[in-house]
Specification:
The complex is a heterodimer. Chain A is an all-alpha fold. Chain A has a single domain, classed as MetI-like (MetI-like fold, Orthogonal Bundle), CATH 1.10.3720. The chains are: A mainly alpha, B mainly alpha.
């Protein structure tokens, strides 16, 4: 029998949850309104503001850019992050202890400082194309999630299984792909999800790196809000929420909800 | 021979990425603030001798501290209830906290624009029930920024603390009760001290997150409630004052790193078990 919190505490927690979920419900409601201004509860139900997203070229373009960036940055970060996480666990004695700190630097340094510094050194200083600068920024941003989450998975992996495979004649590279990687599959999926969501929602780093013709969805939303205050923004927000739900559903299907509770 | 470098070879690409595109550029940004023609510390003298700039820094610290304090209190109380909830309900409550966290900062700040605007829900409600005839202007105030930031960071606090509170053995709480402590006494003398390391981690996350935020002060504070993040953007992209912007960036780095280091130190001292 666990201790039951007092009714007063339960009431506070309930209010906190109303505070957490309420605003998102309001955004969903506002996106369905038939009016040309933002209002809640919605007046008349309509999906016209969802159609409107795709009629605005800037939104169409930035949705594509954001998805491309999120997939590419996450893919790149996994490509270099998985070997790094593996090295940190498997070759711990060879590597200096500060190396794992290097991989969390992108979280420690304020994102907005990273964005501004990349603008100065990479986008302007080295005149990298806009998309490449954005890709570098996003890859850095999501690298810590990849390295840390996969490292945590590898920490509970029994490397003697790998040694057994190698001593039985399996080449090291093949052993990695057939023995090690399948065992940390959950970690890789979790890293992918965290990285993808971080990239697709990023504002502070992208802010400085977007340029003429190339922008990301959150930056476009910020720009749109400053000019128009119509339900389109609510619809785009709901679209982003759907994406989050879809990603969470994937977690549920592949790993089970208990995974999220960890 | 070759084997000695396998670890380094595998870690090299990621290390290079961080070194070339994070450490070097950020070091260059901080470096420019010491390379000014007018003298080594002149950008800092300019920053701290301007009343407006000091106000921005002060406001940012104030908003971040208030946000941290409020989300600590409500996050802690909520996390306690969540950690003692029965299995199925607990999963639902955790997912309900994860979901806002995974929804972007822009979307969540925008929600407060709809709520707090002149024709927003809150004003319509207040006018509707007759509390006021004229809608209040709630946007672009310090309060609106704080409310949105508390909204932004409370889920993070809840999730950080649920893990910590779950690890407090049930026996301890019951022992305290059977030895005659009131529920409030148990909460204050048993649960709270054991949760301190988690509270510190949560406080650091919320403080640094608020201190370096951009989208929320931009949308809900505007020009009137300029904070370090929005000020940095304005100096860099509107005024093209890159030395001024770099100075703001350097101050942000110093304060966030100092807070992280100091708090980890304190957390270690309070709990020798944490690494």
């Amino acid at each position: 029998m666990t201790t039951r919190p007092s009714p007063a505490l339960i009431a506070i927690a309930a209010l906190v949850y109303v505070f957490l979920v309420g605003p998102l419900v309001i955004v969903i409601g506002a996106s369905l309104s038939d009016t040309t201004y933002l209002t809640f509860p919605p007046q008349g139900l309509s999906l016209r503001w969802f159609e409107n997203i795709f009629e605005i070229t800037a939104f169409r373009r930035t949705i594509v850019t954001s998805l491309q960036l999120a997939f590419l940055a996450t893919g790149l970060a996994l490509l270099i992050g998985i070997p790094a996480a593996y090295a940190l666990n498997r070759y711990r004695i060879q590597l200096p202890s500060w190396l794992s700190t290097v991989f969390v630097l992108p979280i420690l340094v304020p994102e907005i400082v990273l964005g501004f510094s990349l603008l100065k050194s990479v986008a302007v200083g080295a005149s990298f194309p806009i998309f490449v600068s954005l890709l570098i920024g996003h890859t850095l941003l999501v690298l810590p999630y990849c390295v840390r989450v996969i490292s945590a998975s590898l920490a509970s992996f029994d490397f003697s299984i790998e040694e057994a495979a190698i001593s039985l004649g399996s080449p090291p590279a093949r052993t990695f792909f057939t023995i090690v990687l399948p065992n940390v599959r959950a970690g890789v999926i979790a890293a992918f999800i965290l990285a993808f969501i971080t990239s697709i929602n990023d504002v502070s780093t992208s802010l400085f790196l977007t340029g003429p013709g190339i922008s990301t969805l959150p930056i476009q939303i910020l720009a749109h809000v400053e000019q128009f205050f119509d339900p389109t923004i609510a619809s785009v927000s709901v679209l982003l929420m759907f994406l989050t739900v879809a990603v969470m559903a994937i977690v549920e299907r592949t790993l089970g909800l208990t995974f999220l509770a960890k | 021979m070759l084997k000695r470098y396998t670890g380094w070879t595998l870690a090299l690409p990621a290390t290079l990425l961080v070194a070339l595109f994070l450490i070097l550029p950020v070091a260059a940004t901080i470096g420019t603030t010491f390379a000014d023609a007018k003298g080594v510390f002149s950008p800092y003298v300019t920053f701290f001798s301007s009343g407006f700039r000091r106000t921005v820094l002060w406001r940012t610290l104030e908003v971040s501290l208030i946000t941290t304090a409020i989300s600590l209190v409500f996050g802690f109380l909520t996390a306690f209830v969540v950690s003692r909830a029965p299995g199925r309900l607990k999963s639902i409550l955790i997912i309900a906290a994860v979901f806002p966290l995974l929804t972007g900062v822009v979307v969540r700040s925008f929600a407060w624009l709809i709520i707090l605007g002149k024709n927003g829900i809150l004003n319509n409600f207040l006018v509707g029930i007759g509390i006021t005839d004229e809608p209040f202007s709630m946007l672009y105030t310090q309060g609106s920024v704080i409310v949105a930031m508390v909204y932004l960071f409370t889920p993070l606090m809840i999730l950080t603390l649920v893990g910590v509170l779950e690890n407090i053995p049930e026996d301890l709480i019951q022992a305290s009760a059977s030895l005659g402590a009131s529920p409030a006494g148990t909460f204050r003398q048993v649960i709270f001290p054991l949760a301190v390391p988690g509270l510190i981690v949560g406080a650091v996350l919320v403080f640094t997150g608020s201190f370096t935020s951009y989208a929320t002060p931009q949308l809900l504070g505007g020009e009137r409630q300029m904070m370090m993040g929005t000020f940095l953007y304005q100096r860099a992209m509107v005024n093209f004052d890159w030395v001024g912007a770099s100075t703001i960036a350097a101050i942000m780095v110093v304060i966030t790193v100092a807070v992280v280091l100091a708090m980890t130190r304190i957390a270690k001292r309070l709990n020798p078990m944490t690494t």
